[in-house]
Automatic annotation (TrEMBL):
Pathway in which the depicted protein is active: Carbohydrate degradation; pentose phosphate pathway; D-ribose 5-phosphate from D-ribulose 5-phosphate (non-oxidative stage): step 1/1
One Pfam family linked to the record: Rib_5-P_isom_A
Gene: RKI1
EC number: 5.3.1.6
Keyword annotations: Isomerase
Record protein name field: Ribose-5-phosphate isomerase
Family: Belongs to the ribose 5-phosphate isomerase family.
An example Gene Ontology biological process: pentose-phosphate shunt, non-oxidative branch
Any one annotated GO CC term: cytoplasm
Gene Ontology molecular function terms on file: ribose-5-phosphate isomerase activity
Species assigned in the record: Coemansia asiatica
Length: 269
């Protein structure tokens, strides 16, 4: 098997295992992530539907245009997040979604993740935030001790096109010491680069920038190793015009990694 096929097989195994563990007839609302690994989750959902193992009233909440197409093509029913009732109105839990299965670009030892390689992280974060459980699926190349050490394309940051140059300049002046911003433990650096770089993501086969499903631009912000994901997420989020940051700190409850030898690892924080 070619190395590309081995990676695809690893992604598929992780996706199938996560769906098998988390999706049964008791699941009423399911979040569907975006990207190439999630395609295999949709493949497994189609099989389960044929076997009569899904809830007949199952609603699927998409995280992007691509994800909505996957839902429709799988013969499942798509629902918008704000059209759903909360699962348990009597409790403080505001979740509308039982479980969301999504891909990731890098996942650290505590299951903090970088997402947004496909530019869908705004809706992905909204859906994750409204989910009782966020389950990540990936091949083992994404499994990392420290964010920023494997995914070297920068943190995807969705920004307003109205001020992208100003936002870029401001992000490039972010101080590496979280101490300067009072956001994390004194003396500890949130990230390693002295001079972060923010690059406007360019479209392929179209001149000009990537325009997200929400009509915004994406800056890919390289900061080196991310020692304190929450502090970096907060630092970036504070810049006016930043719409969403592709760091998901403390959101995932489980991550499934497919290995090249065909084995699968499931990790919890
Ligand atoms: O966050 C995402 C899209 O915004 C994807 O989930 C992430 O980029 C992983 O994609 P893939 O499964 O193709 O590696």
């Amino acid at each position: 098997m070619s190395s590309a096929n081995i990676i695809e097989q690893a992604k598929r195994s992780a996706a199938f295992a996560a769906v098998d563990k988390h999706v049964d007839s008791t699941v009423r609302v399911l979040g569907i992530g975006s990207g190439s690994t999630v395609v295999y989750a949709a493949e497994r959902l189609v099989q389960l539907k044929k076997e009569g193992k899904l809830n007949p009233d199952l609603l699927c909440v998409p995280t992007s245009f691509q994800s909505k197409q996957l839902i429709v093509e799988a013969g499942l029913r798509a629902a918008d997040l704000d059209d759903l009732p909360v699962l348990d109105p009597e409790s403080a839990d505001f979740s509308s979604i039982d479980v969301t299965i999504d891909g990731a670009d890098e996942v650290d030892a505590k299951l903090n993740a970088i997402k947004g390689g496909g530019g869908a992280h705004l809706r992905e974060k909204l859906v994750a935030n409204a989910s009782r459980k966020l389950v990540l699926i990936a091949d083992s190349r994404k499994d990392s001790e420290t964010l920023g050490t494997k995914w070297d394309k920068g943190i995807p940051v969705e920004v307003s096109p109205l001020a992208w140059r100003t936002i870029k300049r401001q992000l490039e002046r972010m101080a590496p010491l979280s101490r300067a911003h009072g956001l994390a433990k004194a003396e500890s650096a949130a990230f390693s680069f002295d001079h972060p770089q923010a690059v406007l993501r360019q479209a392929v086969r179209k001149a000009g920038p990537v325009v997200t499903d929400n009509g915004n631009f994406i800056l890919d912000v390289s900061v080196g190793s991310i020692y304190d994901p929450l502090a970096v997420e907060q630092l970036i989020k504070m810049v006016p015009g930043v719409i969403e940051v592709g760091i998901f700190s403390g959101m995932a409850k489980e991550a499934w990694f497919g290995n090249e030898d065909g084995s699968i690892v499931c990790r919890e924080p």
